[in-house]
Amino acid sequence: MLDFINTILEHLAMTAAGVAIAVLIGTLAGIWISRKTAFAGPVLYIADVIQTIPSLALLAILMIVFGLGDLTVIIGLCLYSLLPVIRNTYTGLTAIPPSIREAARGMGMSSIQSLIKVELPLAVPMILSGIRIAFVTALGTAVIGVLIGSGGLGYIIYRGIQALDWGMIIEGTIPVVLLSLLAQYVFNKLQRLEKRRKINV
């Protein structure tokens, strides 16, 4: 039982690490292209191209560069998570009416102050939506990391396939499904709380 719990925690840790890095890079990239809109098309196109690469092929390419193990999977999950984070950050910021930015400037705020105190808080629900998509997708994608030497729930599923043991396959699959449902619930809850907070303000 303890080994099973550790396997779930390892799967969550890999997923969280990959998505966290993607959130840092993707949010900054989304902010940048919302300010430099001429670069929005190319940046989103590159992220979209990465997203279209088959997951096994991407992990195989990364394995050649970084070797076997969890690090390679984390990098792969980060790359796969970039598109929804960048796109939703960009969409959330560019959807803010120009009048709100002008009002912030009229109050004496600098561009950075306006971004931090006004624009990003307004874009939070959209950004959270992108993170939710990235996290749920990464939970499933992390399963195939076992093929390049990582751990997590994919290891249980892979052992089940090798042994033709449906019980073991289901044992590895159900936690992935439950974690995905839990992640969607948590992020949806956060989005609703944020929307209520803005209404009350």
Describe it for me?
The protein has eight helices and no strands. It is an all-alpha fold. The chain has one domain (2-200): MetI-like (MetI-like fold, Orthogonal Bundle), CATH 1.10.3720.10. The protein starts with a helix and ends with a helix.
CATH architecture verdict = Orthogonal Bundle
Gyration radius, in Å: 19 Å
Can you tell me the residue ranges where pLDDT is under 50 for at least 5 consecutive residues?
none
Q: Give me the strand/helix succession.
A: HHHHHHHH
First-residue to last-residue Cα separation? 47 Å
Q: What is the CATH class name?
A: Mainly Alpha
Query: How many domains, as an integer?
Result: 1
- Helical proportion, percent range: over 70%
Helix vs. strand class: mainly alpha
Task: State the helix count.
Answer: 8
Total beta-strand segments: 0
Q: Which topology does CATH recognise? A: MetI-like fold
Mean pLDDT: 90
Query: Quick one: CATH superfamily?
Result: MetI-like
Q: What coarse outline follows from CA principal-axis ratios?
A: elongated
Major sheet: none
